Fold this sequence. Notes:
Blueprint: H1 8-19, H2 24-31, H3 35-47, H4 61-68, H5 80-86, H6 89-98, H7 101-109, H8 118-128, H9 130-138, H10 144-148, H11 152-159
Amino acid sequence: MARRKITVRDVGEVLEHWQAGRSVRAINRSLGVSRPTIRKYRAIAEAHGFRPGESPPPEGWRAFLDKVAPELFNPGAGSAMFTELRAHHEVIKEALKQTTVLTAWQGLREQPGLKVSYSSFYRYVRKHLSEAVERSSMCGGRTHHQEKSRSWTMVISACGKTR
């Protein structure tokens, strides 16, 4: 079955069916939404105290989801990882002037508390620093091994940031 974009209206319907006590499989059959997607939205509602048989949020599902998970229906907001990476935007930008995307990611992961996968980091860089990706992939003629051995502290100090 091909993937399809789910709308806020669809999510509202999924959550209404779930609150009425229908099973994941029954919701899947009647609405055509995948079971993992149903579980994802059900988990969001349950994490905020909603249970089957109870009333929906007073502000409605749209307002509720906008408040608790804005990235779901506003692609510009990005994921929670994008929000975390935005706080390091200047450091990333400076690092990409001197290193490859992979090396910048490895250095950034050394920052305390920042745990982001390479794929998330790469998506962020492609979306927000696309010109830097092309420039950094060339690596100034250095081999990959030489590039990996460059000091991340040099990148941090060039930005005026300390750990």
